[in-house]
Design brief:
The structure is a single chain. This protein is of the alpha/beta class. It has 3 domains: about 10-100 and about 145-195 and about 245-260, UDP N-Acetylglucosamine Acyltransferase, domain 1 (3 Solenoid); about 100-140, no CATH class; about 205-245, no CATH class. About 20% of the residues lie in helices and about 20% in strands. Strands 2-5-7-9-12-15-17-18 form an 8-stranded mixed β-sheet. A 6-stranded mixed β-sheet has the order 14-11-8-6-4-19. β17 and β18 form a beta hairpin. α3 (about 200-210) packs parallel to α5 (about 225-240).
Length: about 260
């Protein structure tokens, strides 16, 4: 699921062909198979995005760089965000905004990124300023990586560049400023480790099993309520030759080709 995404998203208007493409590839934009995106709506997508079937983008009009099968999100997505299979994102989850230079004389963007704010351009024009050279500053454009089977509670804020490991849980309203280990439960501001969901031995087995490679029809009969028993049964099923779920992926290029752009 992990890919290198461009920061340059393309705006695409929804067309009948694009709606049909989403339906054919089983990409859901609303609950219970309803359709939320209508003809003429404008979506934002990276050309190198990879959207697996049976995924659910239930809020907003921005598609992530990657979202795995059986995941759902009510959160505010960024076009560089990557979400693994079976992950759950509650409403109001979002990525923290661009950073400011806390160790410079001024944290204002006038010195490194004034372009979005027209007042700065107006001032420089009015005073006939010449040669206003900007300073380089990384505002935090690295993507957020969300693993498989992650649960992120309502209103959590995610710092750009962090990775949330497989099986982790992020409490509601948490502000996550650093990587979250697999199967950790974190909460607070800034988010801190509360506990791990399982013992080190069980976590290691879950990581090695990578059970999210398979569909719910394979996983459900193995009884997820009993982690150690599940792992015993899953490992036996692997030995018996169960087949991973490896579907065709809908790409950003496919979406752009089926929609309408201004270029």
């Amino acid at each position: 699921m992990l890919i290198h995404a461009s920061n340059k998203a393309v705006r695409v208007r929804v067309t009948p062909d694009l709606i049909e493409l989403f339906v054919r590839h089983r990409v859901h934009s609303a609950q219970r198979s309803r359709r939320r995106w209508a003809i003429g709506d404008q979506l934002s997508v990276n050309p190198d995005a990879r959207i697996e079937p049976y995924s659910h983008i239930l809020e907003g009009r921005t598609l992530p760089a990657a979202i795995g099968a059986f995941a759902y999100t009510w959160g505010r997505l960024e076009p560089t965000m990557r979400i693994g299979r079976y992950s759950s994102m509650a409403p109001l989850v979002s990525q923290l905004g661009m950073g400011h230079p806390a160790d410079w004389v001024s944290s204002s963007p006038f010195s490194h990124n004034p372009q979005p704010l027209g007042g700065f351009a107006d001032y420089l024009q009015d005073v006939d300023a010449k040669g206003f050279a900007l300073h380089g500053f990384d505002q935090g454009s690295e993507p957020v990586e969300i693993g498989n089977d992650v649960w992120i509670g309502e209103g959590a804020l995610l710092k750009p560049g962090i990775t949330i490991g497989n099986g982790a849980i992020v409490a509601a309203r948490a502000i996550v400023t650093r990587d979250v280990p697999p199967y950790a439960i974190v909460g607070g501001s800034p988010a801190r480790l509360i506990r791990y969901r399982f013992s080190e031995a069980v976590i290691a087995r879950l990581q090695a099993a990578s059970w999210w490679r398979f569909g719910p029809d394979i996983i459900q009969p193995l009884d997820v309520r009993d982690p150690e028993g599940f792992l015993d049964r899953f490992e036996q099923a692997l030995a018996d030759g169960i087949t991973p779920f490896d579907p065709p992926v809908l790409t950003g290029q496919d979406i752009i080709a089926a929609g309408e752009t201004d270029s």
